[in-house]
Amino acid sequence: xxxxxxxxxxxxxxxxxxxxxxxxxxxxxxxxxxxxxxxxxxxxxxxxxxxxxxxxxxxxxxxxxxxxxxxxxxx
Length: 75
What we know:
Layout: H1 2-5, E1 9-15, H2 17-33, H3 35-42, H4 44-62, E2 69-74
Antiparallel strand pairs: 1-2
């Protein structure tokens, strides 16, 4: 692991994938609820691209392809 190669000790990984999935879904809900404002700032094409990317991230987490971990250690 990179942390150990960087001479960190007591390295700990905590899987926070489920919390990440909740965050992704929350972001999507808020973006959809405020679509007009986001489209005004970004343009429709960019807004759609970002929402599509969020959908892909949500699907990847659901399929077990995307994970998030909290990593910490002591140096």
